[in-house]
């Protein structure tokens, strides 16, 4: 089946206030989180865009880099999605957060071939809610996001309700990732310690 989603965008511009340090540089099994995420995506995408702040941190990786193109008082996921989509050369893009080291390659491969059917976005929907930071976005969202940011509307959860969004059910997601560890994100020191425990028990979680 032909791929419809050809570029991956990694959001790496957060302030990491709860963690207190740059999450992309946290180490799991001898690799930084950003190296793990890029390593997994590099097998499936010819173009990877990192939307972040510190270009130097990503120079050794096979990625394109962009900073936010719209300046706002505080950084948020929408400014990162906007910048990544603007930099991308593809019509459809997989957007993932940099703090999700256990993204599942089988699930991502499924998403690259997902029939987007003209949606502006296609978002996994699980019991915990939407996963808008592990979702497919059309390049057409660039103008929609700019309009939202102009109104100081920053919540990505609200944004996806204002565009033509399709949803992928938890049942479908679990066919590829039964434990839903794809959506495990590291926001706090406690999350990081849990990630270390998981990797020690299941080292394949960070392999690529």
Order of helices and strands, N to C? Answer: EEEHEEHEHEEEHHEHH
Q: What is the class in the CATH system?
A: Alpha Beta
Largest sheet: 8 strands, mixed
Q: Beta-strand level of the residues, as a percent range?
A: 15-25%
Number of strands: 10
- Name the poorly predicted regions: none
Number of domains: 1
Q: CATH superfamily assignment?
A: Spore Coat Polysaccharide Biosynthesis Protein SpsA, Chain A
CATH topology: Spore Coat Polysaccharide Biosynthesis Protein SpsA, Chain A
Report what the structure shows:
The protein has 208 residues and is an alpha/beta fold. It is 30% helix and 21% strand. It contains seven helices and ten strands. Strand 2 and strand 3 form a beta hairpin. It is globular and about 45 Å long. The two termini are 22 Å apart. The model has no long low-confidence stretch (mean pLDDT 93).
Compact summary:
By secondary structure, the protein is of the alpha/beta class. Helices cover 30% and strands 21% of the residues.
Describe the structure using short key phrases.
eight-stranded mixed sheet, alpha/beta, Spore Coat Polysaccharide Biosynthesis Protein SpsA, Chain A, two-stranded antiparallel ribbon, 208 residues
Task: Tell me the layout of helices and strands.
Elements: E1 7-12, E2 27-28, E3 31-32, H1 33-42, E4 47-52, E5 64-66, H2 77-87, E6 92-97, H3 105-112, E7 121-126, E8 129-130, E9 134-138, H4 141-150, H5 156-159, E10 165-169, H6 170-176, H7 189-201
Parallel strand pairs: 1-4, 1-6, 4-5, 7-10
Antiparallel strand pairs: 2-3, 6-9, 7-8, 7-9
Helix pairs in contact: 2-4
């Amino acid at each position: 089946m032909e791929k419809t989603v050809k570029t991956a965008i990694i959001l790496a511009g957060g302030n990491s206030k709860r963690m207190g340090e740059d999450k992309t540089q946290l180490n799991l099994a001898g690799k930084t989180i950003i190296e793990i995420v890029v390593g997994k995506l590099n097998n499936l995408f010819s173009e990877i865009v990192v939307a972040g702040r510190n270009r130097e941190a990503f120079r050794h990786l096979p990625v394109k880099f962009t900073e936010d193109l719209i300046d706002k008082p505080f950084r948020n996921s929408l400014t990162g999605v906007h910048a990544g989509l603007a930099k991308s050369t593809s019509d459809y893009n997989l957007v993932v957060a940099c703090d999700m080291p256990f993204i599942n390659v089988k699930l991502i491969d499924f998403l690259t071939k997902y029939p987007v059917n003209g949606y502006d976005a296609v978002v996994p929907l699980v019991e915990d809610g939407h996963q808008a930071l592990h979702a497919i976005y059309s390049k057409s969202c660039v103008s929609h996001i700019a309009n939202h940011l102009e109104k100081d509307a920053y919540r990505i959860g609200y944004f996806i309700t204002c565009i033509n969004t399709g949803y992928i059910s938890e049942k479908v997601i679990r066919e590829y990732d039964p434990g839903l560890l794809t959506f495990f994100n590291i926001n706090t020191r406690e999350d990081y310690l849990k990630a270390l425990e998981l990797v020690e028990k299941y080292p394949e979680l960070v392999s690529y």
